Amino acid sequence: MAKPFFRLQKFLRRTQFLLFFLTAAYLMTGSLLLLQRARVALPQGPRAPGPLQTLPVAAVALGVGLLDSRALHDPRVSPELLLGVDMLQSPLTRPRPGPRWLRSRNSELRQLRRRWFHHFMSDSQGPPALGPEAPRPAIHSRGTYVGCFSDDGHERTLKGAVFYDLRKMTVSHCQDACAERSYVYAGLEAGAECYCGNRLPATSVGLEECSHECKGEKGSVCGAVDRLSVYRVDELQPGSRKRRTATYRGCFPLPENITHAFPSSLIQANVTVETCSGFCSQKEFPLAILRGWECYCAYPTPQFNLRDAMDSSLCGQDPEAQRLAEYCEVYQTPVQDTRCTDRRFLPNKSKVFVALSSFPGAGNTWARHLIEHATGFYTGSYYFDGTLYNKGFKGEKDHWRSRRTICVKTHESGRREIEMFDSAILLIRNPYRSLVAEFNRKCAGHLGYAADRNWKSKEWPDFVNSYASWWSSHVLDWLKYGKRLLVVHYEELRRSLVPTLREMVAFLNVSVSEERLLCVENNKEGSFRRRGRRSHDPEPFTPEMKDLINGYIRTVDKALRDHNWTGLPREYVPR
Q1: Angle separating helix axes 543-562 and 431-444, nearest 10 degrees
Q2: Which ranges carry the WSC domain (predicted)?
Q3: CA 232 to CA 185: how far, in whole Å?
Q4: Structure confidence at residue 9 (pLDDT)
Q5: What is the reported pTM?
Q6: Which stretch of DSSP H or E encloses residue 63?
Q7: Exposure class string for 202-227: b at 16+ Cβ within 10 A, else e
């Protein structure tokens, strides 16, 4: 009896020693990793910015006509602008710090703990600065570093294209994206946000206020919270595509008051479409209008809304005859209409929790684009899609129950999920189109098309059998459990965008101007429309699939009528 007991005691002692050894090894390994992280993350002391291949702020402003030479002597111009010039022209000279081993180890560990904590909190608090000295502007970028500008006003400093990238944002990436869209300036904010535009304010802020490094480019400055690191885009990176072409919109009658309808003009002999489009793009106008040798720039307005297109032959005369006629050619420039691009979170939490509900593939993302630009407020999401966030849907990252967004995207159905919302916009699309769109998304992402092998495999029939019933049950559940509904048909939204969108905005209890709605109409496509040739037969449904889907169409049509809504559009009628 004693012998087994002795063996057990010996085993426990060995186990105790083994556990002690493993614990010590674990602690030592963790300490080494933390010290390794400290060597990378802790600042090595102040660094002087390297020689910039740049122009000072004032010089750039003079070059584009935003600031004339008299403004440099104007007492109303902030001295920070001239200070920014000096800081850009001459590097800072500071004494080099002493050896690192002379620093207090305790303070270093305290700083390391703070950085370790902020590493996990940075998603909600914004990226931390690297230390007392800001990262340097990108030395190898093709653009010219202009300076650091404030972006905390009601309107954005750069009002053009917007996109984000939480992991891979670089200065070159932002510059290329803005140059492709014919913008002069590329601005980076908070390490992961890119903004484009053609105009800058006359004054800048101190360079040290832009202190966040780019998420995808260590050591390069990418602004800070409410601060933009702005580069002038001089040329594209090799291999980048240039999208400087203008899109023909049609031939239209001239408005009664040309001076009022067309705020800017250029009269020049032998003016071309490219010349007129470039002139209007630089001034951030979305429309370039040609009438003989006259070039005008404009926005869509109630007096010039681009809905009364004429026969193109009326504008196909020689320039002198066209100038005397009452018609003009209208082209869409590469820049966005900036009257409706500013968006923000709700200043106060919404008292009404609104859903934007649809079956997958029914155009929910496009509807969010329209709502955000019409109301000026971000939309949220029950899910988190990093691709959508990177394309400018900033509410995608916000918690869906924060009530800081104007409405929340959801594909959910079922009583419990529906009754969480006070009201909902129910977006319905033809199930044939919805199924094809969702299958494309699942196989090739938001902008791609499924390959032929996907359509010919067993995957497609299985998808139709399972998802077709979901299309029906989704609508039926929301009709049954929804507290307050607005039913919107995707096809009607495309046909009559402004009236339908006006109804949606009123349902959200937001008042908007007619000019803003026309701006949305001019920017209606957004960034999530599939382009290019489809890689499959446009009618991939078998007779058995059609019988199944048509039965669900009849069921939903009857349910809508029973709840005092108009039935489904005529194109839903079984084929």
Answers
A1: 120
A2: 142-234, 245-340
A3: 5
A4: 63
A5: 0.68
A6: helix 57-63
A7: ebbbebebbbbbbbbbeebbbbbbeb
